[in-house]
Design a protein that fits this description.
Length: about 700
């Protein structure tokens, strides 16, 4: 394309004319490409035309009409990002830290797959980019949407912003790409661009970013995509989500395919045939770390064969077939100015170190965790001490040790409080009935009166992985609680009603205005329908994290069945046996569920909540799977699957695995030598299939 004047040098009339001309040109290119399969321009030329078209619209917003081509593929979100559900969830990675861990990772993969120690097994090793992950969806080769990772299941629609990233093609190169391709990878910023951006920010008296990752995240998550366009973001593709027709069968060949389609892939990705080769590549990457120009925080190893990846599957939220080998944590020394005790939603008293601010690995650290009372005693940490602070990735900074030689005279051993610093109830360490030992955590006993616990429970309720109420963050909750407007979770949903009769109205309060109040009420109302699993998790029942909440939601299907069973689940009861049958739910969880639902205060609050909120079934792991929602028992010797693998597969296809056959069993998968379980299944008339039939039914045949 010949040199053009910058868009902001054009008069509105010129812009209008060029916009109309480009629209025609793009439509014609699309027709040639999609209908005739005979493009007349290169992909790079096409991208350049499209970018010019978008730049015109950014400079002259009046050009954006319903007919605009940018509208056809998702308009920029107006007030906040629209949530999008990922067709395939985005998982995170487990971490390893030493050579030994890497050998153990490889050995674990072999055990799971029943491979001999000398059977060939290869991996890829590539840098772990320190940015934010993003999923790009291409349909018929055209970029149609882009989403951030979010909680892994649901992210934010950042399509308009991603279109502003130069390195990301609007249209896949070549013609041999799958109809649907979700490319996943990391959006990041180089160090050079980060420093330059910070200089521009500082010159304009705007906030500077702590590190390139924050700068990348802040630049991508801009409601005004023209801001993103002015920030130099980059991208490396390293994974994929939905793909209609896999172009390759191995990790390294998939990356090569993504590169052919025009997506940037990291040049330091290497195919490795052994743990030794993986470790050698780790050291090679570590040596280059300082001169790469962008931040990395480790090396990711992935089993190369995609068929094996599928067999290995996932545990919790991470693949069994991949792991991140992190670089050692970065350290610095500073002064411990004080120790503050925080009270969590379950009453746990957690000591937090207040430090003289120090830079550790490029980030200013002013707080660090001290874990618990025993940890402080073991390290003999005293206020005034010089301490070594360590920071590794996303982990909260920790105090590693005290520099004894620098202890000031008169520093006294730290006395951990025996009372809750907020409500002054006694703070006790529970004695474990089995071991007779005191729990490491000291807890405030005032759960129903302690304001700190109430506030923390509310924060948890509204948080991202729970009810996910946007605009109701920690600060807002503290404010509403202190003002007496929100004391319990159900109060959140009556706030709008309450506001109508309040004086002053919320919109007149400091820090609020008409728009923010309107947005807050809209965000609250948007969560009047929530998936059951989120609601269960949001209740903050002890030991019921996201995984258990999902299991319970899947098992019971609706809330009242869970509530009735848990309430009646005293030891030895029939209800308890029913809970014990849920795969993965152990005694500690059952006890916590029973305690929670048997408490009348909780009952009342749940009733109040259910008057406000409608629960929807939890999203199934695999909606279309014919075994989704079924209770399956595996018995006898399975030939192709280990037990762990069978369980993982069932989980992936949305089935529950039970240990014994009962009226509730839908399906028994029986291998040779099956005995009493098979007999019982026959007696109860439960459907019995072979291992081969299991593969066929789950579409793996
Ligand atoms: S693979 C199922 N490869 O690290 C496989 N992730 O700690 C999922 N990341 O959320 C990820 N570089 O944002 C993979 N080369 C790489 C990566 C990488 C950075 C990020 C990614 C992920 C996080 C997990």
């Amino acid at each position: 394309m010949k040199t053009q004047p910058p868009v902001d040098a054009l008069t509105p009339l010129e812009a209008h004319a060029e916009h109309a001309r480009l629209a025609e040109e793009i439509t014609e290119h699309d027709r040639r490409y999609y209908q005739e399969d005979a493009p007349t321009v290169s992909d790079a030329e096409y991208d350049a035309v499209r970018r010019r078209y978008e730049a015109l619209e950014r400079a002259f917003p009046e050009l954006v009409t319903a007919a605009s081509l940018t509208r056809k593929v998702g308009a920029p979100p107006a007030e906040k990002f629209v949530k999008v559900r990922h067709a395939v969830p985005i998982f995170s990675l487990a971490n390893v830290f030493s050579d030994e861990d890497v050998h153990e990772f490889v050995a674990r993969v072999r055990r799971f797959l029943k491979l001999a120690h000398d059977a060939p097994l290869s991996f890829t090793a590539e840098p772990k980019i320190d940015g934010l992950s993003c999923s790009l969806r291409y349909q018929r080769g055209l970029l149609v949407s882009a989403a951030t990772r979010g909680d892994g299941f649901e992210g934010e629609d950042v399509t308009a912003n991603i279109r502003a990233v130069q390195e990301i093609p609007q249209r896949l190169h070549g013609a041999k790409h799958p109809d649907v391709l979700e490319a996943r990878g990391e959006v990041y910023m180089t160090r050079k661009d980060f420093f330059a951006l910070n200089e521009r920010q500082a010159a304009a008296s705007r906030a500077v970013f702590a590190n390139p990752r924050n700068a990348a995240a802040g630049s991508l998550r801009q409601l005004d995509a023209s801001v993103t366009a002015s920030r130099p973001l980059r991208f490396f593709a390293y994974a994929w989500g939905e793909v209609s027709d896999m172009p390759a069968q191995s990790q390294h060949a998939m990356l090569a395919a993504l590169a052919r389609f025009g997506l940037p892939v990291n040049p330091l990705t290497k195919f490795c045939a052994s743990a030794e080769e993986m470790l050698a590549h780790y050291r090679h990457i570590e040596e280059q770390r300082a001169t790469l120009g962008y931040d990395i925080d480790g090396v990711v190893y992935k089993v190369d064969d995609i068929a094996l990846q599928t067999r290995l599957g996932f545990v919790s939220r991470a693949p069994r077939w991949a792991t991140a080998h992190k670089f050692p944590a970065e350290r610095a020394t500073t002064i411990l100015r004080g120790i503050e005790i925080q009270v969590g939603r379950t009453g746990a008293l957690t000591p937090v170190a207040r430090l003289a601010p120090v830079t550790v690995g490029g980030v200013v650290v002013a707080n660090a965790t001290l874990h618990n009372e025993d940890e402080i005693a073991r390290k003999d940490v005293r206020v005034g001490d010089t301490v070594v602070v360590q920071r590794a990735g996303d982990v909260i900074p920790q105090i590693v040790e005290v520099v004894a030689a620098k202890r000031p005279a008169g520093a006294k051993p730290y006395q951990f409080p025996q009372q809750c610093p907020i409500c002054h109830s006694a703070a006790l360490r529970e004695i474990d009935e089995k071991t007779g030992e005191a729990d490491v955590v000291r807890r405030c006993t005032g759960s129903l009166v302690c304001p700190a616990q109430a506030v923390e429970r509310l924060k948890h309720f509204a948080s991202r992985n729970a009810m996910d109420i946007e605009g109701l963050g920690d600060k807002q909750i503290e404010f509403f609680y202190a003002e007496g407007l929100i004391k319990t979770a159900s109060d959140i949903f009556t706030l709008e009603e309450k506001d109508k009769t309040m004086s002053p109205r919320l919109a007149e309060c400091k820090g609020y205005g008409e728009t923010s109040v309107k947005n807050l009420f809209a965000a609250i109302n948007a969560r009047r329908r929530v998936p059951l699993n989120r609601f269960i998790y949001a209740l903050g029942i002890r030991h019921v994290g996201e995984t258990n909440a999902r299991r319970l939601a899947r098992h019971f299907g609706e809330f009242e069945a869970l509530r009735a069973t848990a309430r009646e689940a005293s030891p030895g009861s029939e209800a308890r046996t029913r809970l014990e049958e849920i795969d993965g739910v152990g005694e500690v969880v059952i006890e916590a569920l029973h305690d929670f639902f048997a408490e009348p205060h909780n009952e009342r609050e749940i009733d109040a909540l259910l008057r406000q909120v409608t629960l929807e079934p939890a999203p199934a792991t695999a909606k279309s799977s014919p075994v989704a929602g079924k209770t399956v028992v595996f018995t006898g010797a399975l030939e192709r699957l280990t037990r762990d693998e069978a369980k993982a597969q069932a989980d992936r296809f949305g089935a529950h695995v039970a240990g014994s056959v009962s009226q509730k069993t839908d399906l028994v998968v029986a291998g040779p030598g099956a005995g009493s379980k098979l007999a019982k299944a026959r007696q109860l008339g439960v459907e019995i299939i072979s291992e081969e039939e299991w593969f066929a039914r789950t579409g793996q045949g």
